[in-house]
Specification:
Helices cover about 0% and strands about 40% of the residues. With about 675 residues, it is an all-beta fold.
Length: about 675
Amino acid sequence: MWFLNPSKGLFKNPTKKEKGPQRIFFPDLGEHSNMVSYRYIPNIHQEPVNRVMFEPSTNVIMSSSESDNTSVVFMSVSLKQEPYIWKLKQGAKCFDYNTSLQLMVTGGCDRMVRLWTRFVTARPVATLLGHRTAVLDVAIYQAVGQIFSYSRDAELRVWDISFHHCLKTVSLQFPCMQPGRIPEHSNFPFLLLSPPLPEQTQPHLVVGCKDYMALLNLAVRERGRGGWLADEGKEPGLSGPALSCALYNPTLRQVVTGHADSSVSLWDVETGKRRLRICNAHGEDELTCMTLDSSHRRLITGACNGTIKQVWSLLNGLNLHKLEPVTNSEVTAVTCLHDNRLLAVGWSQQITQYDIAGAKDLYVKADMSWKSRGVHKSDILAVGQCSSLGVVATASHDGEVIIWRLETQGPLLHLRKETHTGVALPVDSLLFLQHRAGNRKFRNRGVLVSSQAGCLCFWSTTGQTHSYGQFYAPEQQGERVLSLSSDQPKNTILVSGDTTGWLQIWDISHFALDIQHEPVCERPPLLQCWKAHNRALVSVEVLEVADRLFVLAASADGSAGLWTNDGDHVGSFGQEVMWDISDPATYQRETQSNPGEDTAGRTESDEVGSSKVQNKTPELTSSSQTSQEECCSEVSSTSTAENDHHQPKQPMYLCEDFCQTVASCHQGRCLFDHIDHNNHR
């Protein structure tokens, strides 16, 4: 219904004055056409509709019934899109939906409480068991990350959204209840009043049973600093589990870190506070790589066993999809194209594609349409993509870089850097300079950077000449550069992180724009150089926040830190004292260890940043000069095993943004401050 003149009233005033509320029957709505218009949509459910919700931001109507085939239906008001339909045996008696979490909860006669993601109708994320009678109502209490469910026997249960276990069970004793008899309830026994609320108004839950109502004031208390998965007994000052990858989400302004213990953490870049943690993302297998989808709302992760590439919601940490594995070998890199086609590479030596754009099922099948079988002769270690050139680049352990055309999904060009020794060295990282590639003046110059045994090579993917220069980056001989990044809107700087923990910022505004005829190239100007961590840098990324450039550095020592592009240390993610990224006065605080907190920010800070160099190109040692001379390049023209797989452990989720709780059973706290039973007869 659309109310045409709500300031004057919703319906036409009755001709006769009647006591009590005005009753409007649906068949008589035509008599109120000057006040309200309506649309009748028949045959949505096969059983009576028991719940209706409306989401104004997306214009979606949500309804439920006890029909097996149309238990819950989400449909657009315009009816131009196909509805999402959930099918449950015995249907649904109730449901609740939270837009920001994109989470739906259902309850019904089968006594189960189910959690669903917004776009996956095939199977629930979790099924919560424990009620002994039909579930009459459910409610999502987002402020503390919990779910309330209420059953016909007047039993209230509080569930943890993240862990999917019951925190508290409360049996409400209404005066009308008789021993051995099920009490009577209305169709809507619940009313949850949660934030935002007027000042000095406490959140509470109202439960109705026959002629009685129970008012339950919710006790809002903060959890400990360690969060819900605090590592008890952890020695102070130690770093967390080794980091395998990290990235920045510019849409949500969050840093995402992936750990070797198969956990993922989301951090607020403006304060360094952790917002979300996903544990056991791939069971007991090491997480090796990750990327964002094109909307930056979902995270895709890959594991060392190759069996699962997960798709996670960054809003609530729920697992949206599980991608079909092709082998049981390691997935080393993933990248998402602009149309949400996902490419995964690894020890299978092939490119596997997944369409996650419109996937409604939990499991997404692998697409092996890329003509990649037998092209790479060794394990693929890196992948990059450039939409403006319409190409994808892959690099393998034998030193070969292959350029693929997106349109044909076939190889276009083979690139290889040969050393004097003739030994093929692995390519550790690839980076497309997107600004150059999108500029007609520079797109035929050095637009692709590869890192091989510490030598950074600049390649052109078009024309007759493909090598546009190379130089050895690390300060010591025999080191490697594992990660590269650039300020993509301009491509004036290149950031490299090596295996000794050193981070370097190079001025490449004029580098690799002309063909280099000399086998050894002069280094570009070194703007900044400092020791960011004590072990290898697995990820570096240039990011822009509050109109300033910062550098994210993640290390195998288990820590991730944020730096200004001038080399000033903003802080380490997980440190006790938060920073304000817009206030430089809050930077460079000493990192304090919290023995009870799992953190991505524990480093030996007395060494970190102490060797900062400004506007200086350091003299090469004799050993590094040798490595530089070996950086000569030639361009030359130049297998798959499918095994059984197993399912990992069920992942757990932790939202640290939910820092308040209505219950903490193991500490003996009460769920409610008090329960008032009021007789309203």
